[in-house]
From TrEMBL:
Domain of life: Bacteria
Originating gene: nanK
Family that this chain belongs to: Belongs to the ROK (NagC/XylR) family.
Pfam families: ROK
InterPro entries in the record: ATPase_NBD, ROK, ROK_cs
EC number: 2.7.1.60
Record's protein name: N-acetylmannosamine kinase
CDD domains: ASKHA_ATPase_ROK
SUPFAM superfamilies: Actin-like ATPase domain
Keywords: Kinase, Transferase
Source species of the chain: Lysinibacillus sphaericus
Length: 315
């Protein structure tokens, strides 16, 4: 098997893994640069990459947390000053190795090959600051006619309130069910919540928080239940910081199981935050062509994934 080099770019940290000689691997992590200037950030990223790659690296696989089209960054709400730049060619200005870039929700979907043991169809849903979704259909990543498949966060829901979304529509799911959406809802109720940067900082039994979490979980549950009915996909992998909140997740699961029991009563295979970094795992799998590998080549990769998964990485 060829050497594998994967980088996962996140909003707060960048993680890399280099797998060589089949079983050996090295990981590294750094804070995502935040100089407010794309070129300065890029230089830091390049300095992170260059010492790690040997001549045996046939390509660099990157997972990116925003909307990207043929290497050009269309949208990254975390760092709008990166938008419009061609990330792929910018990296090529410094490094000649081929570069492939995938959106992180799609990488999460690829990690399903590992989670659901090569099953045909599955969905990955990430609930963090926003909401992302990746689909595996017939063991292939499904991207849609325009590569925009998976915009779950901007599907509209019926709720107790009318809220305008940055996309131009009203009542998009992410306004009610994402980490940022729920924090914004609390701010609307009381400016007191301004002191909190994330939902996890708010005291667990705060009454307003519980109401917002319940509605958020339910609306995601209804939306996913609709998707299960349309697609008949029962392998669901949920990731992201909000999924760690048991109150939110219970509310989500109650809707999913209740709706399923009322109608077709299929067996849902639901996995909650089983991978520390689904995008990095997806990157390893796509770079290695995992689902086309024979078992004896899949197994060493599985062991590596198990190891990196059990380690909590701090910067
Ligand atoms: Zn929207």
């Amino acid at each position: 098997m060829q050497d594998i080099f994967v980088i996962d770019i996140g909003g707060t940290k960048i993680e890399s893994i280099y797998i060589f000689d089949n079983l050996t691997y090295k990981t590294d992590i750094m804070k995502t640069p935040n100089s407010k200037n794309f070129h300065s950030d890029l230089e830091i990223l390049i300095k992170f990459i260059i010492p790690k790659i040997r001549s045996n690296v046939t390509k660099i696989t990157i997972s990116f947390p925003g909307l990207i089209e043929e290497g050009i960054i269309k949208k990254w709400p975390n760092k709008p000053y990166w938008e419009g730049y061609d990330l792929k060619s910018s990296i090529h200005d410094y490094i000649s190795n081929p570069v492939e870039i995938f959106e992180d929700s799609n990488m999460g979907a690829i990690s399903n090959f590992y989670i659901f043991d090569n099953s045909e169809n599955s969905i990955y849903i990430n609930v963090g600051t926003g909401i992302g979704l990746g689909l595996l259909l017939n063991q292939q990543l499904y991207l849609g006619n325009n590569n925009y498949a998976g915009e779950l966060g901007h599907t509209q829901v019926q709720s107790s309130k009318t809220i305008n979304c940055s996309c131009g529509k009203i009542n998009c799911l992410q306004l009610f069910s994402s980490g940022k959406g729920m924090l914004d809802r609390l701010l609307e109720i009381d400016k007191y919540y301004r002191r909190y940067k994330t939902l996890s900082e708010i005291p667990k039994y705060d009454q307003h928080l519980l109401v917002v979490l319940k509605e958020g979980g339910e609306l995601l549950g209804i939306t996913m239940s609709n998707l299960i009915n349309i697609m008949d996909i029962t392998n669901l992998h949920f990731g992201g910081s909000v999924i760690n909140n048991p109150y939110y997740t219970n509310s989500l699961l109650n809707v999913l199981y209740e709706n399923e029991s009322k109608f077709l009563n299929r067996k849902l295979n639901i996995q909650l935050n089983v991978l520390r970094n689904p995008s990095l795992v997806g990157g390893i799998l796509i770079a290695s062509g995992y689902n086309h590998l024979p078992k004896y080549q899949q197994n060493p990769l599985k062991s590596i994934i198990k190891l990196i998964n059990s380690r909590s990485k701090k910067i």
